[in-house]
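Tip: read the tokens left to right.
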């Protein structure tokens, strides 16, 4: 491939440029046969999760209504769905039978087959769709050389440099983990915005605003501040992080507009590690 435009790799592109670059870095793997496909309109296989605790997770087939509806939501973000089709070949799915029905979101993780596979629960369609793009983002960074704890490309902070994470609150994390957390939830926020745009004034759109976007935007604002002030990069990483910051700025601006239309505003976020001890519990 010719000289890489790393700024364009940071955000899913309409011409699939980022996907092609990421594929050029993918580790060797054996593609799985395309079977149990959820829909003829895409090429990603859906298979039951069998590698998680069978006492808690019930594997699902691709015809489950939450998976079918989840793919409809994924397609609302055209560029993101193109990432899914080009970079994933298998999504392992399950129901979390301990889910109480009141929480929002999902359980997710890498698939058992390495590159091309992710695992996500589908107790609700939005949670499934968000989980797919969340894991997709981790998948992309790992292919580019940024592992969760360390990086061998793009990010040059040493592993001993520790920072507050926008997602994990019990311990400080290395910069590679901060970038993973930020990047994964930027993908979720972009998907949320596309769902809101397509489902404006509907119960689904309002729920996505209140139970997802409203929760994540303050954390993304916090995370991008940590990254811009502390990240160290090689020359390619400098361009990649520039693209990431540009995309995040757009997400925050568009997200605040969506919140305002719903009568909400961007809340300030105080990291729990910065909170006074007396504020940890109101039990006295």
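Filled-in amino acids:
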């Amino acid at each position: 491939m010719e000289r890489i435009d790393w700024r364009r790799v940071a955000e899913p592109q309409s011409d699939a440029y980022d996907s092609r670059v990421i594929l050029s870095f993918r580790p060797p793997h054996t593609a799985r046969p395309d079977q149990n496909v959820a829909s003829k309109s895409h090429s990603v296989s859906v298979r039951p999760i069998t590698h998680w605790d069978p006492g808690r997770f019930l594997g699902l087939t691709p015809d489950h209504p939450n998976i079918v509806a989840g793919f409809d939501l994924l397609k609302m973000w055209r560029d993101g769905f193109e990432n899914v089709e080009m970079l994933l070949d298998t999504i392992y799915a399950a129901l979390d039978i301990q889910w109480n029905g009141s929480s929002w979101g999902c359980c997710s993780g890498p698939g058992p087959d390495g590159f091309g596979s992710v695992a996500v629960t589908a107790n609700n369609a939005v949670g499934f769709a968000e989980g797919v793009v969340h894991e997709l983002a981790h998948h992309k960074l790992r292919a580019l050389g940024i592992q969760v704890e360390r990086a061998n490309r793009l990010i040059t902070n040493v592993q001993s440099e520790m920072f507050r994470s926008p997602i994990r609150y019990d311990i400080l994390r290395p910069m590679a983990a901060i970038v993973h957390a930020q990047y994964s939830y930027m993908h979720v926020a972009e998907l949320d915005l596309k769902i809101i745009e397509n489902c404006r004034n509907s119960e689904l759109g309002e729920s996505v605003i209140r139970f997802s976007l409203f929760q994540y935007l303050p954390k993304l604002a916090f995370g991008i501040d940590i990254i811009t002030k502390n990240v160290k990069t090689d020359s390619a990483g400098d361009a990649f992080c520039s693209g990431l910051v540009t995309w995040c700025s757009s997400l925050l601006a568009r997200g605040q507009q969506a919140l305002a239309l719903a009568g909400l505003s961007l809340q300030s976020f105080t990291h729990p590690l910065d909170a006074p001890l007396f504020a940890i519990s109101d039990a006295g």
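The chain has eight helices and seven strands. The first strand starts at residue 45 and ends at 48.
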